[in-house]
Design brief:
The structure holds 2 protein chains of 2 kinds. Chain A is of the alpha/beta class. Chain A is built from 14 helices and 14 strands. In chain A, strand 10, helix 9 (202-216) and strand 11 (221-225) form a beta-alpha-beta unit. Chain B is 42% helix and 10% strand. In chain B, strand 4 and strand 5 form a beta hairpin. The chains are: A alpha/beta, B alpha/beta. At the A-B interface, helix 3, helix 5 and helix 6 of A face helix 5 and helix 6 of B.
């Protein structure tokens, strides 16, 4: 199978969907390559730096039969458009009684680890999860990035595509042709029997590396990637935890009210999963601090492979 | 453009219907028959009606928290509006939206909005859809003087002008942003003046004169349909009642003389006088219009009261599309 980067996979997804459906348009302050050449300036719109109107325009056009892809570029810029995200996009379909669909996709980069400092190193997907009304995808491989973004564009709801900065240059196999990954289906990235690691985005790759190392110590790790945070494939996650009896949740957002917190709750509040647990649920998350700039500080703020390994050892040691 | 008798009668009837709908809504709220909040449009009827008379069903509007008038003027069914206020399944939003979220996409009414300025970006998106369709559809964005202090207003005017979107921004300057007079909100009380820096026509108009509103809108709509881009219309008007009520009417804080002077310029009375002056309306005809409006409202209330409440088992329905 051919191998391409995560970034290239995302670009292919947009181009293929624009070819497939003339209703798909894209709005953003910047584009890689020259999409206007193929799709024309009416479907590829360079915009002023006006996130609020951009976000609302995507929604309004979607309600009138267009299928816009709005590129915020970085999730941090979407905070300028909080009204349109929180009050409008996440509620518009429900509060109007379902009389119209709003097929808009919002794209943004997310996460730290590349020296962009506090504002541009955030992972705020749990803020959007909390709203109810937005679907959320968070891929960890080039193939998932392409397949999930294509599904997001075809979905008839507002979908936010969080695209991890540290994965942009990751290369991996991507199937040829119309490769789709359905929303709401988790993926078992590695099977194992001793400990389940539920990891998000970049930390799927990190957890796979740790699982390789631990395999040499005789510890068998199962690595799960939810891939979609809304809707969450809770059945697949619970089935894995029921099998291993131990779970470590890894993400680069701080732990407080995080996706990791939600996943932990979804595990322990289910009686069957609770009864299967042999050790406390562990979270490996960022420190509760704005991500600092200086490399040693940034490294200290974000989870490391050592942290993941230590958490696995802890749940093994703490097992009843 | 001289409007013929049939059009004027239609406009007068709609203005009276809008006024009586909101007077009825206030009574229903005081009686505890409906819930939440009511933002009456009474006094501003000439704006919704003068503007909407230029629009067809394929044109679109976005509205505000004070949105009942825009809904009625755009052609929404008052029975389903009333059912929404009553929180019933036959309401436009199946009881999930209430007064501040009535929408009727079938007639191009893309929704009231509880957030000041929140509808402007959505209207720009509807106008973008109209531009891409290429069939001449126009979007009208209603908002208040308060919204002109929001960032969303400025972002929207900028991009609409940049892309020559087929949109008409209609500011209803009713002299108060919530409960604060417009003079303490803006260094210069001239909302239409915001048009010039965004390179679009800006026109201030007597918002209590439905014919003046109609004429100014006609120019803006023609320009938008031609593909020449947006316009900003400032309609100076006045709300007769409070900003918002819940269980009780809030106390009046505005000067009595100010209220009296605006009421003396009642937009409905002015249209009636115009029509009587042109011998287009007799006292009998006016009485018949008012009687019919009253009967329609009685019927709307009966329709709403007969409609069932939503079943709690449907709480989660309509969250996501297939």
């Amino acid at each position: 199978m051919r191998e391409i980067t995560f970034q290239k996979a995302l670009e292919e997804a947009v181009a293929e969907e624009m070819r497939r459906d003339p209703r798909v348009i894209t709005l953003g302050t910047d584009f890689t390559g020259d999409p206007i050449k193929e799709f024309g300036a009416s479907r590829v719109r360079f915009t002023p730096i006006s996130e609020a109107v951009l976000t609302g325009m995507g929604l309004g056009a979607a309600g009138c039969g267009v299928r816009p892809i709005v590129n915020w570029r970085m999730v941090t810029f979407s905070f300028v458009a909080m009204d349109q995200v929180v009050n409008q996009a996440s509620k518009i379909r429900y509060m109007f009684g379902g009389q119209a669909d709003f097929p808009v996709t919002y794209r943004c980069s997310t996460g730290g680890g590349i020296g962009l400092a506090a504002q541009h190193s955030q992972s705020p997907y749990s803020m959007w999860m909390h709203l109810a009304g937005l679907k959320i995808v968070l891929p960890s491989t080039p193939a998932d990035a392409k397949g999930l973004l294509k599904s997001a564009i075809r979905d008839n709801n507002p979908v936010v595509s969080f695209e991890c900065s540290r994965l942009a240059t990751l290369t991996g196999p991507v199937p040829d042709g119309d490769h789709l990954v359905p929303l709401g289906v988790a993926d078992v990235k590695r099977t194992g029997t001793d400990v389940t690691i539920v990891a998000l985005a970049y930390y799927v790759q990190e957890s796979l590396a740790v699982a390789d190392e631990l395999a040499r110590e005789g510890v068998s790790i199962e690595v799960l990637d939810p891939r979609t945070l809304v809707p969450m494939d809770v059945e697949t996650l619970r089935a894995s935890v029921q099998k291993t009896g131990r779970v470590v949740i890894v993400d680069e957002a701080p732990a407080t009210c995080s996706a990791a917190a939600e996943i932990a709750a979804l595990m322990v509040e289910d009686p069957d999963t609770f009864r299967a647990l042999k050790a406390p649920v562990r979270r490996v998350c960022a420190m509760p601090v704005p991500v600092p700039y200086s490399p040693p500080l940034e490294k200290a703020a974000l989870p490391s492979r050592d942290d993941i390994r230590a958490a696995v050892h802890d749940v093994l040691k703490e097992s009843v | 453009m001289t409007l013929d008798k049939a059009r004027l009668v239609q406009m007068l009837r709609t203005m009276i219907l809008i006024r009586e709908f909101d007077e009825r809504a206030i009574q229903l709220r005081l009686a505890g028959k409906i819930y939440g909040t009511v933002h009456p449009y009474v006094g501003q009827e000439a704006v919704a009606v003068g503007v909407s008379a230029l629009l067809s069903v394929t044109d679109r509007v976005t509205s505000t928290h004070r949105g009942h008038g825009h809904c009625i003027a755009k052609g929404a069914d008052i029975r389903r509006m009333m059912a929404e206020l009553f929180g019933r399944v036959d309401g436009y939003c199946k009881g999930k939206g209430g007064s501040m979220h009535i929408a009727d996409f079938a007639v191009g009414m893309l929704g009231a909005n509880g957030i000041v300025g929140g509808g402007l970006p959505i209207a720009c998106g509807a106008a973008l859809a109209g531009q891409l369709e290429g069939k001449g559809a126009v979007t009208v964005c209603f908002f208040g003087d308060g919204a002109a202090a929001e960032g969303e207003f400025h972002e929207s005017l900028n991009i609409a002008s940049l892309w020559k979107l087929p949109i008409v921004f209609v500011c209803e300057n009713n002299q108060y942003a919530a409960n604060n007079p417009v003079g303490v909100q803006h260094p210069r009380v001239d909302i239409a003046a915001h048009a010039a820096p965004y390179d679009m026509p800006g026109v201030g108009v007597d918002g209590n004169d439905v014919l003046a509103v109609h004429a100014a809108t006609a120019d803006a709509v023609t320009r938008a349909r031609r593909g020449d881009g947006p316009s900003l219309l400032e309609c100076k008007t006045y709300r007769w009642h409070f900003h918002a009520m819940r269980a009780a009417r809030p106390p009046e804080t505005r000067p009595a003389e100010e209220i009296a002077s605006w009421k003396a310029g009642d937009p409905i009375a002015r249209l009636e006088q115009h029509m009587v002056g042109r011998a287009l309306l007799s006292p009998d005809e006016l009485r018949a219009i008012r009687d019919r409006v009253g009967a329609e409202l009685d019927e709307a209330v009966a329709f709403a009261e007969a409609s069932p409440f939503p079943d709690p088992k449907d709480l989660m329905a309509d969250m996501f599309a297939r």
